[in-house]
Amino acid sequence: MNKKAAEEKSGVVLLSGGIDSATTLAMALDAGFQVHAMSFRYGQRHARELEAARKIARSFEVMAHLILDIDLAQIGGSALTDDIPVPGGRSSADMARSIPVTYVPARNTIFLSFALAWAESLGISDIFIGVNALDYSGYPDCRPEYIAAFEKMAALATRAGVEGNPARIHAPLIRMTKSEIIRKGASLGVDFGMTHSCYDPDTAGRACGRCDSCLIRKKGFREAGIPDPTIYAE
Questions:
Q1: pLDDT digit string, tens, across residues 27-39
Q2: Alpha-helix runs per DSSP H in 75-158
Q3: How many other CB atoms are there within 10 angstroms of residue 168's CB atom?
Q4: Which residues are paired to 232 by β-bridges?
């Protein structure tokens, strides 16, 4: 493959270390993209998800894995970056009632902006993000209209976009349930034992089993009919 063809089939994938981003990475590879993975040390409560991201990137032998430091803890406003208790034991109805305190202000916009900058510097037009609008915790930056709006903005805000080569934002999981995502990831060889979803792990890195993310993860594996490899503190 010549350089131009290789560039046309390269993509930047946002990799958090969870089920969704790992499956998105596997889907990008399955579609023939050479993957450049991007993760963030953003002032989150724990480093467990970054350990998971490193393992996933290594297991899929990505072209590069860039981990950037952004201290969103200085901004706060979220149970993931501030001294705010992580809610636990909530029902699906409770989760759907309002945007939870685990929402990190503008996080996906910040992450996608960095991915956009890296992609443009590499001459890459395809960016992948594992957002999901069905089995999610009500975050506004996980909706189809948000992705469409960011893609439109990216076309206006970059040299590549102005010169006729705008970025394409791929969100392949956006209309899938968690169980469908798990089945898809399993079919593509994702080792879910490497992934991490918990918002409030203990000091040993074990998942709490009670936060919204753990409950959604448990439900997904149960409905997918696939054993959950997660080690829970409870």
A1: 999 999 999 999 9
A2: 92-97, 107-122, 144-157
A3: 15
A4: 207
Please report which helix (H) or strand (E) contains residue 180, including its range: helix 178-187
Note the pLDDT of residue 3. Answer: 42
The SS3 of residue 201 is coil
Tokens of 203: 């000091």
Residue 34 burial class via C-beta count within 10 angstroms: exposed 0-12, middle 13-18, buried 19 and up: middle
59-95 pLDDT, tens digit per residue, is: 999 999 999 999 999 999 999 999 999 988 888 878 7
Q: Which two tokens stand for residue 55?
A: 């393992």
- The predicted model scores a pTM of 0.93
Closest to 179 measured CA to CA, from 225, 128, 213: 225
Superfamily holding 3-224:
HUPs (3.40.50.620)
In the predicted model, what is the mean pLDDT of the chain?
Answer: 92
47-52 LR contacts (CB < 8 Å, sep 24+): 48/17, 48/196, 48/198, 48/201, 48/205, 49/16, 49/17, 49/18, 49/196, 50/17, 51/17, 51/196, 51/205, 52/17, 52/18, 52/194, 52/195, 52/196
> What are phi and psi for residue 166, nearest 5 degrees?
-70, 155
Residue 127 backbone dihedrals phi, psi, to 5 degrees: -125, 135
Q: Where are the domains of the chain?
A: 3-224
